[in-house]
Specification:
The protein is built from two helices and four strands; from the N terminus they run E-H-E-E-H-E. The protein has about 90 residues and is of the alpha+beta class. The radius of gyration is 13 Å and the shape is globular.
Length: about 90
């Protein structure tokens, strides 16, 4: 199991409850693949460095997790097709 950091930017039209629901869905994918979400930090609504899909703000969420290396591409594919997530970055922490 490798340690990863995942930062997601979620569409600003969603409220805090919807953002929490999206994070729970991502944590579910992590659990299904045999990993664990060790820590979740909600950074709140912040300005983006540049407009993405005509949006100037987004809800930022950081997840620290342990995940098998073979499951990382599957998680990225799921995030790519999750509509409320406008950007994400998955990095290895080791």
């Amino acid at each position: 199991m490798r340690k990863y950091e995942l930062v997601c930017v979620i569409h600003p039209d969603h409220d805090e409850a919807a953002v929490a629901g999206i994070v729970e869905k991502v944590k579910g994918w992590i659990g299904e693949s045999g990993g664990t979400a060790d820590k979740v930090e909600f950074w709140g609504r912040k300005a983006l460095a540049y407009p993405i899909r005509k949006q100037k703000e987004g809800h930022y969420v950081l997840l620290n997790m342990s995940l098998p290396a073979s499951a990382a591409p599957i998680l990225e594919q799921n995030l790519r097709y999750l509509e409320p997530v406008i950007r994400y970055l998955l990095t290895v922490v080791d």
